[in-house]
What we know:
Helices cover 74% and strands 0% of the residues. α7 (117-143) crosses α8. The model is unreliable at 199-226 (pLDDT under 50). By secondary structure, the chain is mainly α. It has a domain at 58-201: Tetracycline Repressor, domain 2 (Orthogonal Bundle). The chain is built from 10 helices and no strands. It is elongated.
Amino acid sequence: MPRPTPEQDTAQRILDIASRLVQTRGFNGFSYADIASELDVTKASLHYHFPTKAELGKRLIERYEHNFVAALDAIEHDAADEFDKLRRYASIYAGVLSNDQMCLCGMLAAEHGTLPDSMRRELRHYFDVNETWLAGVLERGRAQGLLHFDGAAREVACMLLGAFEGAMMLARSYGDAGQFRASAERLLAELRVPNVARAVPVPARDVKLARAPVKRARSATAKRAA
Length: 226
């Protein structure tokens, strides 16, 4: 892979600093002057790479989504099953919080009313990608008898995403990353089918045969009781 040019390297450093500032202060909590001071460059240099703060913000969301999708691909490859995928998904948030930072897009969502339209569109796309991935995991998990929930998988995915983002905010307010982990584990436990009750999906054509022995067993028990 070719090495980045000095210009590309500077752009990445700008994005790195801006990302950290968003995740700790919020998008409206920093200016180009803050980045320029940390990089020891002029504000004109920043405007060369990102002419407006809106363009910088849009690029931040795109990069964050790209990295998040890569993390989701790794989960798909490494996870043992659909429930394990949900646990690993929650661990991404826990890892961000352990660095005393918030989800970049969660922070931006809190400032949605002040963001330019270009950033709002990218932000919505990020959450759509997450909801779609979660919905797929949930639907497959339910079909495999690993997960249980009522209603549409997309609705539960939306609930999970909102719950994780909210749990991060509360945990950070208390300065306790463990509070997020406890909340996430409790939430996911509600979705998991216990081992003793976990059912293996039965093809529709076999349902009648699978139920027949149960009926006979009940009939025999009733006769003994009589």
